[in-house]
Structures are given as structure tokens and as C-alpha cells.
Amino acid sequence: MAGIYIHVPFCVSKCHYCDFFKTTNTEMLNGYLDALMEEFLHRKNSFDEKISTLYFGGGTPSLIPLPNYDAIFSRLKKLYQFIPDAEITIEANPDDLSSDYLMGLREIGFNRISIGIQSFHDDDLKRMGRRHTGQQAMQSVMAASDAGFNNISLDLIYGLSWSGTDKFVENLKMLKDLPFQHLSAYHLTIEQGTNFYKQQRKGKLREMDEDESLKQYLLLCEFAQNLGMEHYEVSNFCLPGYISRHNSSYWDGTPYIGFGPGSHSFYGSSRYWNQSDLLSYIGKKFDLVREQELLTSVNKFNELIMLGLRTKRGIDMSLVTTYFQNHFNAIMQKWVDNKFLYQEGSFLKCSEKGWFIVDAIIEDFFVDADL
Amino acid sequence: MKNIRNFCIIAHIDHGKSTLADRLLEYTNTVSGKDLQAQTLDSMDLERERGITIKSKAIQMQYEYQSEKYTLNLIDTPGHVDFAYEVSRSIAACEGALLIVDATQGIQAQTISNLYQAVDHDLTIIPILNKMDMPNAMPEEVEDQIIDLIGCDRSEIIHASGKTGMGIDKILETIVEIVPAPKGDPEAPLQGLIFDSVFNSFRGIIAYFKVVNGSIKKGDLVKFVNTGKEYYADEVGILGLDLVPRGELKTGDVGYIISGIKTSKEVKVGDTITHVKRPCAKAIAGFEEVKPMVFAGVYPIDTEDYEDLRASIEKLQLNDASLTFQPESSAALGFGFRCGFLGLLHMEIVQERLDREFDMDVITTVPNVPYIAYTKKGEKIEVHNPSGLPDPGLIDYVEEPYISAQIISHSDYIGNLMSLCLGKRGELVKQHYLTTDRVELVFDMPLAEIVFDFYDKLKSISKGYASFDYHTTGFRLSKLVKLDILLNGENVDALSALTHFDNAYGMGKRMCEKLKELIPRQQFDVAIQAAIGSKIISRETVKALRKDVTAKCYGGDISRKRKLLEKQKKGKKRMKQVGNVEVPQKAFLAVLKLD
């Protein structure tokens, strides 16, 4: 089993927090689509596993017209063997989701949609550079449901320093009445290269106070629990049976292949990625833009820790090789004693408070990559 | 002998001593222009970078004047207070001194103290105004200072420039004319004054000395009077650009001796060389055992490097006899050494040489001066580190070393300098105007006060202009306490310090504040406390880590995130575990600079 990820690097406007590879130059969309169709052929021999998930991420995949999706699907189905109940996801912006477009997506074969709500407060949306309103966000979710999507994921951002916890609680209340099965709630991170980063450097934006961050996080966890949702990854919650299978493949070692500029792949013992270079991509210089990282046993151990601890499933300790066993046990003991980690069967897991400092825990487990 | 001139140079750092010396060597064809590495005498990289001379050196020049051939021996002296004793021995080997003063800056503190030494040894002083090519030279004003200081005639002051070569011929002529030839007795028993030594990995220790009386031949059996050790003079010679072997050195000559000595400890600056068969009646006066005045723990950052560190320090000691060391251990830092240094600069130099020449990463702990503790039982105990201080209940009293500190500055800064020195327990002894706007201040001060963040403050409050010099004057009663730092209740021995009671509160508070900045947040609150005995005098808390999480970690984030955490992990490799608290290496260093 394997996944396919397709990166759509186009946006109508840039959100202030976003550091994904994207451009607002939508004139290049046709050239990109042409190259994408070509890249499918170019990499068809990369691997021959059955495809269980297909994911269009961005950027804004909802900018691609339906006929192009038709063409992409027919080519992919010719080249790869999809399992019957493959999960097929599109990331979408609320203001792109007309009923017709949504119906079209369903007809083509999309069975999961991830909608970038972020907030229902218009002032917060504006502050983040989103181009939709809270009203549009609500309507888009209803419309997706009406179009027959019964696996709807919503994105929410919290930890907005300028916006109080009260407003965050209101967002959660608004969510409660909407038809959705999956929630990705991200604490705002001010990433280098973003508009927010510039604002922060000019002193116009600050990080939220940690105690308030933690408070919001715990409110979020409680909210999801009350809805019967499972907290299955640091930032992800779902109703039983609605885990994101595609995203889970990133964390459990399932191979995946990425298409499009800036997309990543993982198979064999390597990670590969296409450079974030749209012009070369459109010029179809696929091998030129491809980079590879062969994972050493230390890298693999570190990834096992990093990805394992982020998920509810935890670290499969049977995969810790003898060589790292002593180191692993020593570090584990320390964090278990402090109740940031706990053991269940042969898995080592983060507690909810552990998740909120998981980077520090991961780092503690890490082995020097030069060894 | 009548055609020998032995002279040294007295100058402040940056006043152009080394450049001027280079010109003398060029002019006398001792070195040709193309061989002249900038500042030939400063051969250590460190010396060139810092523009200071650390080791004394000597070089011989041949000079013809009025159809007579003269031998000029230039004995270069170190230019820093830490090396005052070495300076005094170099001066003792000379009959004349060039007093070089920067025409743009005027006389500085160190110039004066070295000048006094030269005058004490009856050296003939040749005053020189250097950097006369500079547009901001102020010859009249600086001449006034010189005249005031040595009482010479204005016409005796030579105007020179090491950069352009101006005045070089005049300097050489004056040396020949007014510096007296050495006065020794060629027939008397041998007396050679050792003024420096260097280590050569093939030949062992090479001692530099001046033949004060008598003569020495290759192969002679000689004795070093103060150490009592005997050697054969395997080789003697003079100091050109390289060593030049000679069959014999006569009275007045400056040269070297190689006698198979392996460690620098056997060659003490100031010692007297004499013949075993016909020894001199007594040693040359002025010999002192050099005593370290600053002690600090030196620990390898990686505990496995302990043996390498020992080997490195031993090698350093081969050509730096003033460095002392003793094994020491710390609960926080593992095994290391208690090293003794002449002063702070010496300490810095040793640290840098360990890093550059031996590639050793070390942590140096808070330095302290030597104290003498007298117990109620009447014992006298020298205390070199905080753990060496006896239990307060057993102590009768403690003494600490005092210095006479001399500061020369523009008079604008008097107020600042006064409050700095008085705040450092100084007592004003003398205030003297050198000119209308240059003032000399002399304080009696505890040495401990300048060991800990004094230089930096002095420089900053005087905008870099104040110059400073000191010499130790003896021990005085002190109210000494041991200040401890506790992390979550656990004493961190490597952060303990000996300090005067009056400073303990301020220092404890600042150390806690500094550590709060440097200790990263951990999974629990970290209490940082300063304590005297069981009494807590200051406290800070590093709050527990509440949030450290990356929101997204999908396919495209994994490599980048892993590399970022791997890099951070590497950065934290240099953490020391103290109890359950992780302390970065830099915390141990940063407490040395508290402001």
C-alpha cells in the first residue's frame, strides 16, 4: 500500500501565516497542469505498490477546474492500481466551494474534503490574510455536506495572540453545530519567510503567552472529547473511523510518492523531494529538481521517535533496534516518571500535556546524527 | 666590551614599540625588508593579533658609527602587568632604555611603572616621541609630559615614526653615544643573569642571559644558583635572527645557553648562572619565585579529554614556567585542574593557547586570588579554590592580597574612576595631575576586586582611555565568605566563588539573574539560589516549559523538522547534568562577566 500526494502551488492571495510553497501567479496554472500530467508518466516506474490514498494539497487545490481533475484521475488510474475504497482528499478554500464545484468533485471521485476554516471571526480572518468570511466558512461546510461529502475535515487556527481565549471558545461553539468528522487544529506558529514573521520582527505581532496557549489547547482537547472525537495526533482529532489515512501514512512509515513542485516522497530507505521551483517544473526538468536523502540508521531511529510520539499510536518499541535500546530506555524512564509519557503494551505514548512539549521530548531522545 | 650597548624598550601597548624595533633591525641590516614579517619580535600569533608582547626576546644588531663597530642588544620586554617581574629582569640586564611614547596619546600608566623600574636600575633613558607622522600628533603636550616625568631637556626628545622610518638613525646614534657600555669584571667568577627562556622541542629549554661578570665557554660545567642544578653548556651563542653559536660569551654579552634542560621549571627568570669550579660569591640580587596570583579551575568540556588536557597543560608549562596546575575534581564538571596564573591576561592567554595549539575545549571556573586562612589552632592554610576554605567555625581570620593600583586617565573621567575603585573597596592614596587634563590616581585595593570584571568596566567608564597598572603589596585582613549556587537545592560546586562579605549579596543576586537567562526551561521549575552557608541570599526561578510543539508535521515537513531537532540536539550536547537540571556549558563561562 502507498499514498500519492499532489502539490498544487497556487493561491489567489497569500495568507500571512503560511510558509508552504505557493505562488499567486495563477497564469502559470496551465503550464503546471501540463507538466504534472507529464510527471505522472515520468515516475510511473518509481514503485508499483497499490494506492490506498490520494491527496491534493496546497496552495489551493480548489483552484483547479473540474475538467483538469477528470484528466488527472484518468491518467493516474491508468498508471497506478487504486484499491477499491481508496481515500481521495482535496484541500479547499471556503470561497471556492460552490455547489456545482462540490458536486463535480464528488462525481470525479473525491470522497474526503479538508476545508480551511481557520476561524469564524471576520476580524481574525482578515488579520490572517484569509480571503473568506466566517459566514462563507459556515456555508461551505453545509454545502460540502449537501453535496454528499460525509468525510469532512475542518482546519482551525488557535493561539492567536491578538484574539482572546473567549473568541477561541466561540469558534469551538460554532463548530459544534456543523457537519464534520475530522478536525485539524493548529496552534499559530510564526514561520520564517511569512508576513507574520515580518510583523513579529517589527514588533507588530507577538507569540501568545504560553500559559494561555496551554489553556486553549486543553479547552480544545476537552471540546473534541465531548464530541466523541479521538485525539489521534498532536493537532488532529476525528470521529471513530475517520482518521486521515493519507496523513497517517506520513507517521507510520507507509511509502508515498509526491508530484508537483515542492512535493515530498518516501520509499525504500530514502526521502525525495521536488525542489520548490515552479519554472523548472513547468520546463519538465523533473530529474534536475529532484533531491534525495538516504536515511542512516540514526536518522531512522530519530524519525521513529519524532513521528511515533506525535501520534496516539505512539512509538512501536519493538522497532527500536538493540543498538539504541539502552539510550532509549534511559530517556524513556525520565519522561514516564514525570507523566509526560506512558507505556501501553509495546507502545510508548505521549500524554496530552506531553504532546504540548513533544518537541522537547523528541529532542531528548534524538541520537547525534553524526554518529 | 666597550662597544656593546644593551638596551630595552619601554612603551605602552599600541604605542608602536614593535614596529619601531623592526625599523631598527632593518636599518642595521639585521633583517632585510623582504624577510621582515611584520613585527619580527612578536612571533606568537596571539602577540601579533593582540598587538602585545607576551614573551621577552632579544636580538643582536651590528652598527657602525664613526668608523667604529658596535654590538647593540635589544632586549624586548612583555607589555602587560601580569608579566611585571619578567620586565624587571629584562631591565636589569640592560644599561639603557628607549622610552617610546605615542605622540597622539601621551603617557600611560604602564609606561610609568616600567620607567620607574628602569630608573631604579640606573638605566640611561632615551625619550622618543613616536608616530610623529600622524596628523593628530600633539608633540608639545606630550613632550611636556615626558619632561615632567624624567626631567630631561626638550631637545633630548627624539621625534620618530616607526611607520616612515623618521628618526631611526638618530635613535641608533644616541644609543651609542649616551648608553654606557656594560660594566662588569671580565676576570671575576662567572655571573650570568637569566632574563627569559624558551622551549624548543628538539633542543629543550634555551635560556637567555646576560654575562654580568666573567665569561662562559662552550662545554663549561655550570650551576644555576637558585635551583642548585648543574649542567654542561652544550652550546652558547648570541641571538641574531636565529641562534648563532659561539665558542665563548664575554662580560657584557647577551646570548643563550643550551644545556639539555627538559622542563621550564628548572630555568627561573632572575636566576644566576655561574661556574661549578669557580663559583661567584653570591647570586645576582632581585631573584623572586614567581607566584601565581589568580587561580581558576580548568576542565575539559568532554570529560573523556581529561588526560589530553593534562598532556596539553604539561606541554604549555614547558615554555611557561609561571603556569602552575594541580588535579581537582568537581561534581558538576568532573575531573580537571586548578591552574595558577600570573594574572587575568595570562589566564586568557593560556586558555587561548590550549584552544589554538592543542585544540582543547575547556571550561574555566570563576577565578579567585590566593587567600591565607589562619585557623583557631594556629594553622596557616593557603586557599586556592572555594572548596579549600576551611569550615567557618574553624577559621580565626583570613587575609587577602592587596595591590597598589595606578590609573592614568583624562581628568574628565575622575568621578567615574573614583566611584569604580571606591566601589571595589579601593582607598585613594594619591591623586596627581601629570598635565592640566591628565591625572594619575593611585589606590590601595584588594587584588580580588580587579580579578572580577574590573578591566571591562574601567575601559567602558573611561571610553577606553584609562590605562591601568598594579603591583602586589602584601596581604591584609579580609572578611571572606564562600558563595554557593544551588540548582533545585543542589550545590553546584563549579559555580561557587570566594568573595568579600560586602560583595556577596550583589554578586549572588547577579549570578542568579544571569543563570536565569542562560538555563533553558526544563520539564519542571528550576530554582536558582545563592547561599552563604545555609543562608539563602537570592533566588530566581526558571519556569517549567509549557509549550514546545510544532503544529504541523506532514510529508513535506519531516526531513526539515528532523534536521532542525538534530541540530538543536547537537547544540545541547554541551549541557552538563547537575542533579536533575541541565546546565549549558556557557553558563559556567558567562558568570565570569556579570554585567
UniProtKB/TrEMBL annotation, chain A:
SMART domains: Elp3 (SM00729)
Subcellular location: Cytoplasm
Principal subcellular localization: cytoplasm
Keyword Metal-binding on entry: yes
Biological process (GO), any one: porphyrin-containing compound biosynthetic process
Gene3D superfamilies, per database record: 3.30.750.200
One MF term in the entry's GO annotations: 4 iron, 4 sulfur cluster binding
GO cellular component: cytoplasm
Domain Radical SAM core, residue spans: 1-230
Keyword vocabulary terms for this entry: 4Fe-4S, Chaperone, Cytoplasm, Heme, Iron, Iron-sulfur, Metal-binding, S-adenosyl-L-methionine
Chain's role: Probably acts as a heme chaperone, transferring heme to an unknown acceptor. Binds one molecule of heme per monomer, possibly covalently. Binds 1 [4Fe-4S] cluster. The cluster is coordinated with 3 cysteines and an exchangeable S-adenosyl-L-methionine.
Family: Belongs to the anaerobic coproporphyrinogen-III oxidase family. HemW subfamily.
Protein name per UniProt: Heme chaperone HemW
Species name: Natronoflexus pectinivorans
UniProtKB/TrEMBL annotation, chain B:
Catalysed conversion reaction: GTP + H2O = GDP + phosphate + H(+)
Binding site residues for GTP: 14-19, 130-133
Ranges in coiled-coil conformation: none
Any one Gene Ontology BP term: positive regulation of translation
Localization per record: Cell membrane
Residues annotated as transmembrane: none
Role played: Required for accurate and efficient protein synthesis under certain stress conditions. May act as a fidelity factor of the translation reaction, by catalyzing a one-codon backward translocation of tRNAs on improperly translocated ribosomes. Back-translocation proceeds from a post-translocation (POST) complex to a pre-translocation (PRE) complex, thus giving elongation factor G a second chance to translocate the tRNAs correctly. Binds to ribosomes in a GTP-dependent manner.
Protein name listed in UniProt: Elongation factor 4
Domain Tr-type G stretches: 2-183
Entry GO CC: plasma membrane
Keywords: Cell membrane, GTP-binding, Hydrolase, Membrane, Nucleotide-binding, Protein biosynthesis
Record-linked HAMAP family: LepA (MF_00071)
NCBIfam families: lepA, small_GTP
Gene name, Swiss-Prot/TrEMBL: lepA
Claim: Membrane is one of the keywords in the record: yes
Protein's membrane topology: Peripheral membrane protein
Keyword DNA damage: no
Main location: membrane
InterPro entries: EF-4, EFG_III/V, EFG_V-like, EFTu-like_2, G_TR_CS, LepA_C_sf, LepA_CTD, LepA_IV
EC number: 3.6.5.n1
UniProt family annotation: Belongs to the GTP-binding elongation factor family. LepA subfamily. Belongs to the TRAFAC class translation factor GTPase superfamily. Classic translation factor GTPase family. LepA subfamily.
One MF term in the entry's GO annotations: GTPase activity
Any single Pfam family the record assigns to this protein: LepA_C
